[in-house]
Design a protein that fits this description.
Layout: H1 13-16, E1 23-26, H2 32-43, E2 47-50, H3 57-70, E3 76-78, H4 83-89, E4 95-100, H5 115-134, E5 139-146, H6 152-155, H7 159-167, H8 181-188, E6 199-202
Helix pairs in contact: 2-8
NADP nicotinamide-adenine-dinucleotide phosphate (NAP) binds at residues 27-34, 51-55, 100, 102, 146, 148-149, 151-154.
Length: 209
């Protein structure tokens, strides 16, 4: 098992982040963090498909049109496919799989009780490590673990909880979803060609104290 080498490591550094000619699939790409990941991958040059759940066909049509005008005709298309099978089938493909875990996979959030969520995110981080070893031949597997990101998922929680969380962030503010897209482009691209099994924590310092 050999981890694929960078195709041109001495090239200027910004070219390492280019996703020209690459194909990406984002699960849950119709809003929140996933939508900004779709945007980031498109902006870096990839062709991007994404999955969604409750978004209506009209909303999806408007979204793909907006993504197309933002990216010179390159569109994010709603679709699904088992990505790892495709990567494996294409011998010597330098695939990159990125799981969205959470700081909840590292610590126990308070004041809420959410053992199942925390355990699932911890499991995801270890799944990434395990697959990074088992799939070395055809894909790198890494995680991004966001802290508190301003999306609809956060809005549904009681204000008292949110006030408590915000008081615990050394960075003293929420992260905007577009602030995450650079991390995903980095992990998707050759800029991180020797990184696999890692968990990139993006949390304004939340997990540090
Ligand atoms: N927001 C945070 O502070 C935060 C922090 C740490 C980790 N995370 C993690 O980041 C990820 C995204 O969170 P978010 O805040 O961006 O959530 P969000 O705004 O609620 O977006 C969720 C996305 O997932 C899609 N989705 C939901 N159920 C699905 C299903 N069964 N099949 C396919 N797509 C489905 C939704 O599609 P529809 O719009 O069509 O329903 C939507 O595109 C989650 O794994 C979350 O645990 C979030």
């Amino acid at each position: 098992m050999v981890l694929a080498a960078h195709p041109n490591p001495t090239a200027p550094v910004l070219s390492h982040f280019s996703l020209e000619g690459k194909t990406a699939l984002v699960t849950g790409g119709s809003r929140g963090i996933g939508l900004e990941v779709v945007r980031g991958l498109l902006e870096a040059g990839a062709s991007v498909g994404f999955t969604y759940s409750s978004t209506t066909p009209d909303e999806i049509a408007a979204l793909t049109q907006a993504l197309s005008s933002e990216n010179g005709g390159r569109r994010g298309l709603p679709r699904g496919q088992a990505a790892a099978h495709v990567m494996k089938a294409r011998n010597k493909t330098r695939g990159s799989i990125i799981f969205t875990a959470s700081v909840s996979g590292i610590l126990v959030n308070v004041p809420q009780t959410q053992a199942a969520y925390n355990a699932s995110k911890a499991g995801l981080i270890h799944l990434a490590k395990s697959l990074a070893v088992e799939w070395t031949d055809f894909a790198r597997v890494n995680c991004v673990s966001p802290g508190f990101i301003a999306t609809e998922m956060l809005d549904v929680h009681p204000k008292a909880w949110r006030d408590k969380w915000f008081s615990m962030i050394p960075g003293a503010r929420l992260c905007l979803a577009p602030e995450l897209k650079g991390s995903y482009v980095y992990l998707a691209s050759d800029a991180s060609s020797y990184m696999t099994g890692a968990n990139l924590v993006v949390d304004g310092g939340y997990t540090l104290p």
